[in-house]
Amino acid sequence: MPNKKPHPYQPEHDVHRITLYNTVYPEHQHRSQKDRLYLHFDFACFYAQVEQLRRKMYGLPLIIGGWRKENGQVKGIVATASYEARKLGIKTGMSAFEAYQLCPHVCMLQVDYDAYTAISKQVHFIFKEFAPVVERYSMDEYFMEIDFLKGRTRQQINSFAQRLQKRIYQATCLVGAIGIARSKTYAKLASSLDKPKGRSLILTEDEERSEIWPLDVNEVWGVGRRRHEHILAEGYKSIGDVAERGNQKTFIRLFGANFGKMLFQTITGKDQGRVMEEISENYEPKGGVSYGHTFSEGSTDLERVKGEYAIAVQQVCYRMRAYGIRANSFSGVIGFNEQDKPGIGFRFVTSAHTNIDDYVYQSLMEKIEPGLKEICSHDIEIRNLMLGTYEIDKTNQLNVFFQDDEDKTARVKAMDEIKNRFGQKYITKANTLYRVEGNTHFLERNV
Q1: HSE on the CB side for 31, CA within 13 Å?
Q2: Hey, which bits of 149-288 come out as E strands?
Q3: Beta-carbon neighbour count of residue 428 at 10 Å?
Q4: What span, in angstroms and rounded, lies between the C-alpha atoms of 92 and 85?
Q5: What are phi and psi of 247, to 5 degrees?
Q6: Coil, strand, or helix at residue 330?
Q7: Which of 3, 161, 318, 345 has its CA 20 to 30 A from that of 260?
Q8: How far apart are CA 89 and CA 83, in angstroms?
Q9: Which of 137, 283, 285 is nearest to 221 (CA)?
């Protein structure tokens, strides 16, 4: 029998908050400089674990994000896979059909948010039994401040972590890895050292040097593809390279005074990140969301300009989904290379409030493609562009029009999960490959 149809898209459950690496920002830092201790808990293959437990599928290869249509055709993208599936070569981000080719007997399931949310809330309460301040970083990751363990022996700290794992397992039958370190960033990195259910204690500078410093610098949150390229160009490949040879002035030169300083401190484990329970649960933008891009030089290449607008749509919609908002009114600007030639502003609407890329891009092209063709055909160079929301809806109520297209919403949901875990560049659409190199100069604004 074919699998049930994909679950309707639920952004409040589906998307890890895109602002989470903002731990590098001043407002997410402790004001006082003192020694602290952090614990990070990371459930292994959370969705797959839950489904293996619920359906008694222990030891079976399982993927979340794929399904079979009535005609037997395999559809979807692998959002996560059990360890049994991973051993067979199945990876996050590949198509469900590729997974099926690797293992024709792989079990395919769609997400069940009600089940995952219930367990996530249950474990949140359990964490509260162990520490007063707990941050739900995502449905399957948690932070705790455990300053009350400072001064305890290594054995006592390890015993605390062991009791937490045991309590979680007794209550849910789920396993996860724990990282404990002197910075929030290093605690998260430490939890990845001994998956799926180990405990990594990084309590001294010597342990940071031996366990954390060898990791690639792009393992640190806030270091995306472009920032990584800049850091590599300075000769820093590993975290240890930055810690041993790096200096704050270099990062300020590369990334600006505030962000550069905080990113350097984050990479070197000197950040004072707060465990922010209230923000992790209820963050939303102050206004609308927008994306701007300035080209390195003017362009008359229609396909590349359209590709840059496809990226703009992708970025704006991704952020709307993360914030749990939708829009049906959008505005934008087409800027020109000639300084005395004013840019062209435009507005367009979609047929309903949405945060799905394809709908927004279709409406955008209906509005501006004829004009873009005219501009490019007359060799008028385009130098910058902007796209942003004009009117937003924060009700988190899905419009029936968009619920009907379950294939599309399932694909978007799976792509978001992959981006959240592996970065924006890990998976993308073909129409975004034609782009104009330059600088993205803002991603969010008030309206």
Answers
A1: 0
A2: 176-181, 199-202
A3: 14
A4: 10
A5: -140, 150
A6: strand
A7: 318
A8: 10
A9: 137
Q: What does the alpha-carbon distance between residue 38 and residue 145 come to, in Å, rounded to a whole number?
A: 5
Is 141 assigned a catalytic role?
yes
Q: Is 107 helix (H, G, I), strand (E, B) or coil?
A: strand
Q: Considering the chain, what percentage of its residues have pLDDT values greater than 90?
A: 45
- Which fold is adopted by the domain 283-444? Dna Ligase; domain 1 (3.30.1490)
Distance of CA 392 to the CA centre of its chain: 22
Beta-sheet strand order (sheet of 62-68)? 74-81, 62-68, 107-109
Mean pLDDT of 241-258: 92
CB 274 within 8 A of CB 30: yes
Taking phi over 0 as left and psi of -120 to 50 as alpha, with beta for the rest, 267 belongs to alpha
Phi and psi, residue 343, nearest 5°: -70, 165
- Candidates 51, 84, 135, 141; catalytic one: 141
Which pLDDT value is given to residue 417? 65
Neighbour tally for 385: CB within 10 Å: 24
Give me the phi and psi of 126, to 5 degrees please.
-65, -45
User: CB–CB of 169/147 below 8 Å?
Assistant: no
CA distance 43 to 233: 35
User: Greatest CA span in the chain, whole angstroms?
Assistant: 73
DSSP string, 128-177: HHH-S-EEEEETTEEEEE-GGGTTS-HHHHHHHHHHHHHHHHHHHS--EE
Q: Which two tokens stand for residue 440?
A: 């993205």
Of 246, 244, 176, 180, give the one whose Cα is nearest residue 207.
180
Both tokens of 96, joined, read 């469900």
pLDDT band at 441 (very low <50, low <70, confident <90, very high): very low
